[in-house]
Recover the amino acids of this structure.
């Protein structure tokens, strides 16, 4: 006997017509999912059942029948999206591979040009939201190269594919429903709702939830168009960052120099700027840091041989936009250079741009066997894996910077260095 899926959510309070539409969709789901459930038992068509469940949830949330009818025939599982989700550059590339591509000379030049072009608009946004122009441009540059690469994936397809994957299904299910709500209210047609593989949209790559909460008609033409209006996109980004807690008058952080005897286990420590200054931390020119109560932490994305940064509260605001330290550093440094700042004082070590997933998995397994907490064994170097590497380094009398040096990789993976670093 096939288990029939039940209608999700209450219908109380809906009009008679709305209740009829919801019940009609439930009936359609029962028919489709009955077939899909049988198929799912032999592993052939689980996506069809999941996709129909998503549409039922959207209908229950108030999305209209015409919108659901437009979206349904487009839904299909896209294996490319699952592959991209599991190889995000923020976690699969080294800082040496990630940073130079995002804070390039070409991007700095373009950002400075746009700083002049949009000077009046950007100053107005700063007056309203507290977010300086160079940061808005830096986000724009990193997200879509100032509007050059908006993405080509149909957003409902991307979100349905990810919602039907077990890794973050609840999050993407909600984003899918909100994407359909955007279509429903007439902001964009289904065919024109294109974006990244993860469902981010427009010049600033807003997820549907951010769009619903913060998309603004900045040019006052009666539309919230984050795809074709850079004004709407920039104004919306200012309000979004303000809502995330941007501190007016404070920078993201800065490049610093660490004393020779610095204990790299302290990089997880958040303490006042004055405390870091007392330890001998200076700015990149060797000048003492300003003594203040501003909370700050130190980040060494390339280990002790590369540049070091001190991060202030606005750094964490940037990470609410994208949960990657590489991304947040790149936004901050691109903003600095757009505003006239120079390049990094300490060069990034010349290491491979990407580390093989199988090697990182082996490293994680080795650390876990030895009792170090690495988080998920997924072949991606996140904060938990870096902390575990640092603890292992300290236990072995090495500099505990948490970086995957050649010797560290070789020792933990059991592979010769040359094989570990092979392309």
């Amino acid at each position: 006997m096939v288990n029939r899926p039940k209608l999700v959510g209450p219908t109380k309070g809906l009009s008679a017509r709305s209740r009829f539409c919801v019940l009609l969709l439930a009936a359609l789901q029962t028919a489709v999912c009955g077939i899909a459930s049988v198929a799912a038992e032999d592993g052939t068509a689980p996506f069809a059942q999941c996709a129909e469940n998503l549409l039922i949830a959207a209908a229950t949330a108030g999305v209209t029948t015409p919108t659901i009818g437009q979206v349904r025939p487009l839904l299909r599982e896209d294996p490319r999206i699952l592959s991209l989700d599991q190889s995000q550059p923020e976690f699969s590339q080294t800082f040496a591979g990630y940073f130079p591509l995002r804070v390039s000379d070409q991007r700095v030049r373009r950002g400075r040009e746009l700083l002049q072009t949009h000077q009046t608009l950007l100053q107005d946004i700063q007056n309203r939201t507290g977010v300086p122009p160079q940061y808005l441009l830096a986000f724009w540059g990193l997200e879509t190269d100032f509007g050059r690469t908006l993405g080509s994936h149909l957003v409902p397809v991307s979100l349905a594919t990810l919602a039907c994957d077990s890794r973050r299904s609840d999050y993407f299910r909600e984003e899918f429903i909100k994407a359909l709500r955007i279509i429903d209210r007439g902001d964009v047609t289904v065919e024109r709702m294109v974006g990244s593989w993860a469902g981010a949209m427009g010049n600033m790559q807003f997820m549907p939830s951010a769009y619903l909460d913060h998309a603004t008609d900045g040019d006052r033409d009666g539309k919230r168009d984050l795809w074709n209006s850079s004004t709407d996109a920039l104004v919306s980004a200012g309000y979004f960052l303000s809502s995330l807690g941007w501190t007016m008058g404070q920078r993201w952080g800065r490049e610093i120099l660490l004393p020779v005897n610095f204990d790299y286990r302290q990089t997880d420590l958040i303490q006042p700027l004055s405390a870091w200054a007392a330890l001998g931390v200076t700015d990149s020119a060797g000048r003492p840091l300003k003594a203040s109560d501003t909370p700050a932490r130190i980040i060494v994305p390339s280990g002790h041989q590369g540049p070091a940064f001190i991060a202030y509260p606005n750094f964490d605001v940037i990470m609410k936009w994208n949960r990657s330290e590489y991304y947040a550093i790149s936004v901050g440094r691109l903003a600095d250079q757009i505003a006239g700042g120079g390049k990094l004082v300490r060069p990034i070590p010349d290491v491979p741009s990407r580390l093989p997933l199988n090697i990182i998995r082996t490293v994680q397994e080795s650390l876990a066997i030895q009792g170090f907490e690495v988080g998920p064994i997924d072949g991606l170097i996140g904060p938990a894996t870096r902390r575990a590497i640092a603890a292992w380094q300290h236990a072995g009398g090495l500099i505990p910077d948490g970086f995957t040096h050649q010797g560290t990789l070789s020792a933990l993976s059991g592979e010769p260095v040359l094989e570990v670093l092979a392309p």
